[in-house]
Design a protein that fits this description.
The structure is a single chain. The protein is mainly β. It has a domain at 1-60 and 263-424. Helices cover 7% and strands 53% of the residues. It contains three helices and 31 strands. The protein has helices spanning 3-9, 14-29, 419-423, and strands at residues 40-44, 53-60, 67-74, 80-86, 93-100, 106-116, 119-126, 129-136, 139-145, 152-158, 165-172, 175-182, 196-203, 208-213, 220-227, 230-236, 243-249, 254-260, 266-273, 279-285, 293-299, 305-311, 322-331, 337-345, 353-354, 357-358, 363-369, 375-383, 389-395, 401-406, 410-416. Bound molecules: calcium ion (CA) (4 copies). One calcium ion is lined by residues 345, 347, 350-351, 359-360.
Length: 424
């Protein structure tokens, strides 16, 4: 189910890839269609801290075999929009967008592209629509959708070079700024393509105005935000060696570029900006860890590190065998951040069960940091049978969380943060 992202982190462990393929075949074979919330296992990794409870879980697939979400948006109407693919690249994937209401019930879903190499990467809400970005047939695409029906208002697809895609977009005074990559060398990997980072400035109708290379600063640009009339762009350096962050003008001139991480691989996939312009980057690291762990960095608006934290293995297995892989985060109103990952073991040579939890079962892994980087709590969520991983997280108008779960479909997992504390 998570084979695309698993393939990424184990790609330098070639034997593990073979093992993984066999493992996935067996895991998929025993997966249920949709786990009811009664069977969701919740565990606290931080010695009995109060962790959010499951309010509800719903999931929706597309027309293809399985579906994999990559991004979730909390919408102004109280509902949620999830973006990803149904089917698998390069032959059977279509871009899939699913809109649910505030209680997780389906409102509409739409698919884009002919079966093949299509990617659904992220979306933003603007006054009169949702703007979805990704790729259709290996070309960068921006699609504006009607909020109520999901019907297409306009769609722009442009070939910027080789296998290219847009990962994220923001609205600007003159239209949109978008980031992504061109010339993917590993074009069947949807997470790190070994391409060349790209910034595209588009007008209000998604027509291209400016197209700038972000090389050599990043091989894959992933997220961006606007602050004080500048763009802040996160991504992965060449070879995914470090987290990359670039400040650029609204016309695309690079002001500064910085990198973060240790001596080994640091893979940045998650980013968000707080109202004061400070930023949180997260992803997973092999620097000074026993195996892939979450690595979260808080950075001020000048690129200076305020705090950094590395955590993993929340269920307490042998850390040498546990992959903790971050895919999304949001900054929180208390000045901290909530980070979402998957945690699990993918080694034949190791398997450990501790009560109801087994290392081989993948779990959604949520970490909550306060304003100074202290881990307030961490928790895992998953079914009694099968695998889940957290792909992204968003914050509701009430301050609760909804996780985009990869359970072979687009899972929407609502987590209630302590309502009794808010009421007092
Ligand atoms: Ca192309
Ligand atoms: Ca590094
Ligand atoms: Ca780990
Ligand atoms: Ca194992």
């Amino acid at each position: 189910m998570k084979e695309q992202r698993r393939r990424f982190t184990v790609r330098k462990q070639r034997f593990a890839v073979l093992v993984l393929t066999l493992l996935l075949t067996s895991v998929v074979g025993c997966l249920g269609e949709d786990e009811g919330e009664g069977s969701i296992l919740v565990s606290s990794g931080n010695n009995g801290e109060t962790v959010p409870e499951v309010a509800w879980m719903t999931s929706y697939g597309g027309s293809g075999e399985e579906a994999h979400g990559h991004f979730i948006l909390a919408c102004e109407d109280g509902g949620f929009l999830q973006i990803g693919e149904t089917g698998f690249i390069p032959n059977s994937a279509k871009l899939l967008v699913v809109k649910v209401n505030a209680t997780g019930e389906l409102e509409w879903k739409k698919e884009f592209g002919s079966k093949g190499h299509n990617l659904g990467n992220s979306a933003i809400e603007v006054g009169d629509g949702y703007v979805v970005v990704g790729a259709l047939d290996e070309d960068s695409t921006v699609i504006k959708l009607n909020k109520t029906t999901g019907s297409t208002v306009w769609s722009q697809t442009h070939n910027y070079g080789g296998s290219d895609a847009i990962e994220h977009v923001v609205a600007t005074d003159t239209g949109f700024a978008a980031v992504g990559y061109i010339d993917a060398e590993d074009d069947e990997n949807t997470f790190f393509t070994e391409g060349k980072g790209r910034l595209m400035l588009l007008d209000q109708d998604g027509e291209q105005q400016v197209d700038r290379s972000l090389n050599p600063h990043m091989a894959h640009a992933y997220r961006l935000a606007v602050h004080d009339r500048h763009l802040f762009i996160s991504g992965l350096t060449e070879g995914a060696e470090d987290y990359a962050l670039v400040k650029a003008t609204l016309s695309g001139e690079v002001v500064w570029a910085k990198t973060y991480g240790g001596g080994q691989a640091d893979h940045n996939f998650a980013f968000d900006m707080a109202e004061d312009g400070s930023m949180v980057l997260s992803g997973h690291t092999l620097s000074d860890t026993e195996n892939w762990d979450t690595y979260t960095v808080n950075i001020d608006n000048d690129g200076v590190v305020l705090w950094e934290a590395t955590h993993g293995n929340p269920r307490g297995f042998d850390a040498r065998y546990i992959h903790d892989e971050v895919w999304g985060l949001r900054t929180t109103e208390d000045g901290g951040a909530v980070v979402v990952a998957g945690t699990g073991d993918e080694y034949w040579s190791y398997s450990k069960c501790d009560g109801v939890e087994c290392s081989d079962a993948w779990r959604v892994y949520v970490l909550k940091f306060d304003a100074v980087g202290t881990l307030e709590w961490e928790a895992t969520y998953g079914p009694s049978q099968g695998d889940w991983a957290g792909e992204d997280i968003c914050i509701t108008q009430d301050g609760d969380f909804v996780v985009a779960v990869d359970n072979g479909a687009f899972g929407f997992l609502k987590l209630n943060t302590s309502p009794e504390v808010e009421a007092s």
